[in-house]
From TrEMBL:
PANTHER family: GLUCOSYL/GLUCURONOSYL TRANSFERASES, GLYCOSYLTRANSFERASE. Its EC number is 2.4.1.-. Coiled coil: none annotated. GO terms for molecular function: glycosyltransferase activity; UDP-glycosyltransferase activity. Keywords: Glycosyltransferase, Transferase. This is Glycosyltransferase. Belongs to the UDP-glycosyltransferase family.
Length: 469
C-alpha cells in the first residue's frame, strides 16, 4: 500500500511568501481530503505567526505547523541598513535551512508521518536538492507571475548578456522568446539592479540564479506550481515549456489567516459600511515597502484633492520611523489611516472602487479576484512587470509615474485616480468594467472544475503530464 500523501510546504519568512504558501497548504488539503500537509517557515516567523504554539502545533489533524531553523534566533533584523548583514542572513538561511529541513524530513518519517512531496517557495533553491537526497519529488511554488518566471528562465538561458549590456537604459526593449517585447524598466529589478556584488540585494540575485540552476537539475522536468491562472497568463505559461508549469491560483485566504502582522481594530470595516458603492480608494504598499515623509505627504495630498474617501495603510514600522515628524491623528480629513487590515476583506467590500498598490503579486492577484481596478506604484522585484501586466495585458489600471527625484507627486496621484475610476470607454479602457470581467474569469478558474482547480487536483493525484496547457 502506498503511504498517505503528505506535502511539506516550505517558505521564506516574508509575509508575501508566507501568505500564498499557507493558502496553498489549505487548498492542497481541500483538493485531497485524505492528504496531510506540514507548513514550515523559520522559527522566528513561526513564533510571530503562531505565538500560542512557538515550537510547532497542529492546526487541524491534517495540517501541522513545524518551523525550521535559519541559523539565527530572531531572524533578519529589517531595521539594519548594513548590506553585509543581509548577505550574512541569506547565507545562514541557505546553509542552516537546508540542514534543518533535512532533519525535519527525517523526524517526520521517524514518527510515522513520512513526507511524500516537498513544495517550496522561490528563495529556497536547496529545497529540491534536499528532497532529491531523501528520494522525494519536489515542486517549486512560484509566487510571482508566469511572465516573471519566463523572463528569469530566458535570462538564465542565454539572455543575461543582453540585459546586462542595457541594464541602465530603462527604455531599451528586450525580446525574450514567446513574450511580448519588454522594456528594461519593467524587468524584475534583481536582474537589472542587483547583479553586481556591491549592490544591496545581490544575494537575492544569486539565490534566484541558484534556483534556476537547481530547476535544471530536475529530471525529466521540474514541476512548477504558479500562483496565477491559465486565463490570465496563457502566453507566458507557454513561454516556459521547459518546466511542467501548472497555474493553480490565484490562491485566496479561506477565513482568518495567521500572518506576521497584527490587524488594527476592525473599525475600518464599519467605516467602509457607511460609504457608497465603489467610492473608496484603498491604499496599501504591502509588508516591506518603506515610505519617506515627503512621499507620505504627497500621497495624502493627492488623495485629499481627489475628493474621494480613502483607507490608507501605514504600517507600524513606518509610523515609528516617522514618529517625531508626524502626528498621525492630524493627517486624514477625508480618510482613515490604519496600521494593517484584512486586505482581502477590504478589497471584497462593495464600497472599495480602486486600489493604489505597490503591485506585490499577492496584492495584484487579490485585486483581480475582487474586481478592483488599480493605480500602480511599483518599486522593486517583480512589481514593475506586475504593473505592466495590470496596465497593458489586462487593462485594469494605470501606472503612476514618479518624478526625477523618485517622489510620486500629488497631481499624478489625482490624475491616475481619475483615469482609473472613470466609467465607460474613456477611462483606461473602462478599467472598472474590465476588472469585473476578470473577476468572473478568475472565479471560474478557481471554482469546481475550473482550470486552476483541475490543475491542482492533477498535481495532488500525481498526474501532471495529462494536464494540457
Ligand atoms: N496585506 C494585508 N493587510 C494590509 C496590507 C497587506 O493583509 O494592511 C497583505 C496582502 O493581502 C498581501 C500581502 O499582505 O497578501 C502583501 O503581499 P504582496 O505580495 O502584495 O507584497 P509584499 O508585502 O510581498 O511586498
Amino acid at each position: 500500500m502506498s503511504p498517505q500523501r503528505h506535502f511539506l510546504v516550505l517558505t521564506f519568512p516574508l509575509q508575501g511568501h508566507i501568505a500564498p504558501a499557507l493558502r496553498l497548504a489549505r487548498r492542497l488539503l481541500a483538493a485531497a481530503p485524505d492528504a496531510l500537509v506540514t507548513f514550515s517557515t523559520t522559527e522566528a516567523a513561526h513564533r510571530r505567526m503562531f505565538p500560542a504554539e512557538p515550537d510547532g502545533g497542529v492546526d487541524d489533524c491534517r495540517l501541522e505547523l513545524l518551523p525550521f531553523s535559519d541559523g539565527t534566533d530572531a531572524g533578519y533584523d529589517r531595521s539594519s541598513t548594513d548590506p553585509a548583514a543581509f548577505t550574512d542572513y541569506m547565507a545562514s538561511f541557505q546553509a542552516a535551512g537546508a540542514r534543518s529541513v533535512g532533519e525535519l524530513v527525517d523526524a517526520l518519517a521517524a514518527r510515522g508521518r513520512p513526507v511524500t512531496r516537498v513544495v517550496y517557495t522561490m528563495l529556497l533553491p536547496w529545497a529540491a536538492d534536499v528532497a532529491r537526497e531523501k528520494g522525494l519529488p519536489s515542486a517549486l511554488y512560484w509566487i510571482q507571475p508566469a511572465a516573471v518566471l519566463a523572463v528569469y528562465y530566458h535570462y538564465f538561458h542565454g539572455y543575461a548578456a543582453v540585459v546586462a549590456d542595457h541594464r541602465h537604459d530603462p527604455s531599451f526593449v528586450v525580446r525574450f522568446p514567446g513574450l511580448p517585447p519588454q522594456a528594461v524598466r519593467d524587468l524584475p529589478s534583481f536582474i537589472t539592479d542587483s547583479t553586481d556584488p556591491s549592490e544591496f540585494f545581490h544575494s537575492v540575485y544569486t539565490t534566484v540564479r541558484d534556483l534556476f540552476e537547481s530547476l535544471d537539475r530536475e529530471s525529466p522536468r521540474a514541476t512548477v506550481l504558479v500562483n496565477t491562472c491559465q486565463e490570465l497568463e496563457e502566453g507566458a505559461l507557454a513561454a516556459v515549456r521547459a518546466y511542467d508549469a501548472l497555474p493553480i491560483g490565484p490562491v485566496l485566504p479561506s477565513g482568518d489567516e495567521a500572518g506576521l502582522f497584527k490587524q488594527d481594530s476592525a473599525k475600518y470595516m464599519e467605516w467602509l459600511d457607511a460609504k457608497p458603492v465603489d467610492s473608496v480608494v484603498y491604499v496599501a504598499f504591502g509588508s516591506l515597502t518603506g515610505m519617506a515623509r515627503e512621499q507620505l505627504d504627497e500621497l495624502l495630498l493627492g488623495l485629499e484633492e481627489s475628493g474621494r474617501p480613502y483607507l490608507f495603510i501605514v504600517r507600524k514600522d513606518i509610523k515609528a520611523e516617522l514618529a517625531d515628524a508626524v502626528e498621525t491623528d492630524a493627517w486624514p480629513k477625508n480618510g482613515v489611516v490604519v496600521e494593517w487590515c484584512d486586505q482581502v476583506r477590504v478589497l471584497s467590500h462593495a464600497a472599495v472602487g480602486c486600489f493604489v498598490t505597490h503591485c506585490g503579486w499577492n496584492s495584484v492577484m487579490e485585486s483581480m479576484a475582487c474586481g478592483v481596478p488599480m493605480v500602480c506604484v511599483p518599486q522593486m522585484s517583480d512589481q514593475r512587470m506586475n504593473a505592466w501586466l495590470v496596465e497593458f495585458e489586462w487593462r485594469v489600471g494605470a501606472r503612476a509615474e514618479v518624478g526625477g527625484d523618485g517622489v510620486l507627486r500629488a497631481v499624478e496621484v489625482r490624475q491616475r485616480l481619475e483615469e482609473v475610476t472613470q466609467d465607460g470607454e474613456a477611462g483606461a479602457g473602462g478599467a472598472r468594467g474590465t476588472a469585473s470581467e476578470w473577476k468572473r474569469v478568475v472565479a471560474e478558474a478557481l471554482g469546481k472544475d475550473g482550470s486552476s482547480d483541475r490543475n491542482l487536483r492533477a498535481f495532488v493525484e500525481g498526474i501532471i503530464s495529462s494536464v494540457s496547457l
